[in-house]
Specification:
Strand content of chain B: 25-35%
GO biological process, one term (chain A): siderophore-iron import into cell
GO molecular function, one term (chain A): transmembrane transporter activity
CATH superfamily of chain A: ABC transporter involved in vitamin B12 uptake, BtuC
Strand content of chain A: under 5%
CATH topology of chain A: ABC transporter involved in vitamin B12 uptake, BtuC
Radius of gyration of chain A: 21 Å
Shape of chain B: globular
CATH class of chain A: Mainly Alpha
Number of domains of chain A: 1
Radius of gyration of chain B: 20 Å
Family (chain A): Belongs to the binding-protein-dependent transport system permease family. FecCD subfamily.
Keywords (chain A): Cell membrane, Membrane, Transmembrane, Transmembrane helix, Transport
CATH topology of chain B: Rossmann fold
Low-confidence stretches of chain B: none
Low-confidence stretches of chain A: none
CATH architecture of chain B: 3-Layer(aba) Sandwich
Mean pLDDT of chain B: 91
CATH superfamily of chain B: P-loop containing nucleotide triphosphate hydrolases
Largest sheet of chain A: 2 strands, antiparallel
Strand order of the largest sheet of chain A: 1-2
Helix content of chain A: over 70%
Membrane topology (chain A): Multi-pass membrane protein
Number of strands of chain A: 2
Shape of chain A: globular
Oligomer: heterodimer
Largest interface: A-B, 37 and 45 residues
Distance between the termini of chain B: 46 Å
Structural class of chain B: alpha/beta
Number of helices of chain B: 9
Amino acid sequence: MSEYRGFRIFKGKVSFLIDKRATVILTILLLLAAVIFLWSTGLGDMKISPLTVLKVLFGGGTDMEQLVIHDFRLPRIIVALMVGMSLAVAGGILQGMIRNPLASPDVLGITGGAAVAVVSFLAFFSDQNHALTVSIKWMPLAAFAGAGIIALLVYFLAWKNGVSPIRLVLIGIGISALMQALTTLMMIVGPIYRASEANIWITGTVYGSNWTNVAILVPWTVIFLLIAFVMARNINVLELGDETATGVGGRVQRYRFLLLLISTALIGSSVAFAGGIGFVGLMAPHMARRLVGSAFGALLPVSAFIGGILVMLADLIGRTLFSPLEIPAGVFTAGIGAPYFIYLLFKTRNA
Amino acid sequence: MVQTIETQNLTLSYGDSIIIDELDLEIPKGEITVFIGGNGCGKSTLLRSIARLLKPKSGAVLLEGKAISKMSTKDVAKQMAILPQTPVAPEGLTVLQLVKQGRYPYQTWLKQWTEEDEKQVTNALKATGLEELKDRPVDSLSGGQRQRAWIAMTLAQDTDIVLLDEPTTYLDMTHQIEILDLLFELNEKEQRTIVMVLHDLNLACRYADNIVAIKDQKIYAQGKPEIVINCSLVRNVFGMECEIITDPLLGTPLCIPYGKGRCILKKAGTMIGS
């Protein structure tokens, strides 16, 4: 049962209603994420204790430890955290906006758009000798562009005196299927080893992340997460349905468009740097809803941490369990996600 | 008669089919107005367009003399609240969280729980008798409690006008009366203008100060139930033969429909069709 406390400062110029339970849960998740972060940084072929990890983070440790942590582990773990947070918050926004707990970045075709962009990139920019004619560094940009273009395409195709959630979902599912077909086509047409490269990307992995990725991803993610948190009260209102939302003075169409932009920005950057890590956008917000209920002020931050934790764990398992083999993190998120999705469907059927 | 809502030449349509045709309507301030009419006559459509949920094909809705289409939606929300037909609350949303949404037009992202917000939400919970249930998820409540939670949300909006689209649908008789009594009291105590669509003609007669009967895209009659409700109105608006008697409790008109049924009166044979 939730308990609330009013919070007012600056002579009432700033006021919030704080859900005590959600605050506690959020603090626990924050600590949990920090622990997993440190723990995961220490695990791998070379085991380093969490305490030493802390020491290394503040400039201590041996050169070898410095190298392993700074060059190999930290970037990918930070990317995993950012990607998990982004996908979870984007999924939460989409679920609220579309008013359906089954909505997710995959369902709307946004990740599909990124996949097509990536396989096309790999196919079109390969020369006779199967070497890339442009730098692989441009691949994230292609993925981001693909996600953005498809999100806008879905939005405009769904437009009919404004955009209704159901049209958005139906058009999204259609476009999503089309994107899958295109992806397969490009993979068959392109050179075979590119197909396997594309496949790893589509599954989703943070392998090979570097500090340049981190430098782009962190500010981008933080900014859009903050915007999303500020928009929380508008999502709350949208979730009541278009009519009630309009009734209490919400500008439904404007917010729906803004929220789609924010989620696309978050999804786009995630797929750009980590590929199509699936199901996090579906699972994390749903788990968060179980913990703190439907108010987005609490739901979004809690989802963010759950998402971050999920992807960090998936990556940790992927790079340690079958070492020296690297399993893409997306395999494990899908491994938990797919049964969870079926469980969700099963539950909605009985509801 | 002071009017608070007015429609001028209002034409409403879905695609090419006209639902309401060049309607001029005035809704009196501080009274309960009820729209009645047969299924699909456009009474809900009219209410939704007054609440700016539906754009008119032509004509205008005026709120205190100002065209609603020219006002900011937040300003409208401070004067007029609408409860749509059978709204659905998100899974797990608590009563308090729902009622708090009524404060949306007054909030900014830094001011989300002012003392006024708290006062209005508390009052709304008190008026609807939901103080005890405020931390329960809305989807775990009974039909009547759920509807009261939604009404509480519109009350928290602190508007002079409350519009309700069939607020008693899917409720059993006890809860229908409970909801309508609640609205009646709000009107009595706080002089809020209440405009609603009701299916049940007898309940409409019982609670309405002002009845608007809609037929063939037009207003067929408008006025006090005891003046406008008669056999010919029911015949023309609903296409049903009936007898109008006086409610033995309140004295308002009561409509007894003709038709078939088990007759256990001694003097059988007075019914049409027998």
